[in-house]
Amino acid sequence: MEEDDPVVQEIPVFLSQALAENFYIFQYPVRPANRDWKDVMVKNASIKPKNKIVRLEVGLDTYSDKYCPSKGEQIALNTDGQQESRYIKDRDREKSQYFKNGIMDKIVLESSVPCFKTEHYAVALLQDKELHCTPVKGIVQLRPSCSFYDKQDKQKNDKNKAENSDEEDKEPEIQQVTVKFARQETEISKKAREKSYETISQRISDEPWYDGLWKSSDSDQAELERLKLFSAVTTDGSSLTLPHNEYVRALVPAAPADEAGAVVAKRPSLQEQIKEILISAKLMTFSELRGRVYNEDGSLAGEAAVLNALGGAACCVRGLWAPRSADLYTRPSPAPPHLMCAARDHVLYLFTQHPYVDRRKVAAAVRLPPSDVLEIIRSVGKFTPRMGWELLLPPDTAFEAKYNDVVQRQNTYWEARQRQFNEMLIGENMNKRQRKKSQRDSMCDATNSPKPRCISVSEDDSERKRKNKSASGVGKRTRNISSSSVQDAT
């Protein structure tokens, strides 16, 4: 190294594998780089998982000064034909319509086969003087698709065929028929045919589209996915700073089992050890947890290694570390696992905001049986009379002061989880209101509907009595007799 070019700063580089298998970069070659995606409204997203093809339906502002409504209506008319009355619902026709509102109110962005030669590409985030890199699985380029023109051509061809069929049928002309025998296909020709453009295009068109769920960049789910870009499992240093025995072990692989005999069981990773310890202990401080985590060689793990492993194996509540809810509720129980996880995360979020928690308010918010709510709170808290429930251990203020960046990152995670919990409750309330409204409507229809008139047996009896009165005399009470006896009396 030259003396006039000194090292100014050393930045540790970490590799995150949480999104390595599903991390794709979307490129828009025909979209200006200075245009933002905040105002873009994505109506629908579809994907072909086998061929890795994506399609996005982006809405257009039909009320803009730069939009021509007459041209948009003409394009929709040429594509879907004359639309029927809006009061007549035809589901099959409605599904086949490209523009459902009778106007060109969207454009479709569709990708081609993505680029998978991305071994040397990664997305990096620089935060707190640490560089976190995530490998890129593929690169997808989305361009506008004008497939509605193909539908217009198909509609014109069908119309021409219908007009020709109305004419008089002509006698079929006699044509010469030739017979050809197919040659036996070899392996080389078969592989060449499978790689041809026609075969690939046919395979792509045969695969159906599957609807996807589009989340905007400012949503809570997007924020949780971005947190996965930070490495949860990291090691301090590179292979050049390893001890001699570990460096030789990394260079020379272990002998096979049939040659070296029984292989010694490998010690679990730091994350697995932390998960097992926290599931048993429920709540621990960082110093206590560090004294129970060991490296592969049997030595105590370093402070930095344990701290990095905690990011993907546990969650922090006021400086204390607890197991993640997804690791606790993995099997189905009387309550669904996702509801138990959401309820426990809500309780932990309340402990990050308040020193004491009221069990009755928690039960009213999470809407779970009281026994499940009590089990969740008991796993992390203890009851104090006249105060409420507090954490099992006092807050670790020393850890919060020393590792403020870790605490801030965990607080961001809890806020995102709480927003998801609130959205889940709002969705349940909306569904209940819709069900109650439909029940009220059905009850109103039942009360307002006219009752059918029923002909009872008493009407026939009254008719017979009237005949009997006319036969025997007015005002005289008679018995109910048959018609034959009435004729005999007359």
TrEMBL record:
GO biological process terms on file: tRNA transcription by RNA polymerase III
InterPro entries, per database record: RNA_pol_III_Rpc5
Segments for region (Disordered): 151-173, 428-490
Comp. bias regions, Polar residues: 480-490
UniProt keyword list: DNA-directed RNA polymerase, Transcription
Compositional bias of kind Basic and acidic residues: 151-164
Listed GO CC annotations: RNA polymerase III complex
Protein name stated in the entry: DNA-directed RNA polymerase III subunit RPC5
Organism field: Papilio xuthus
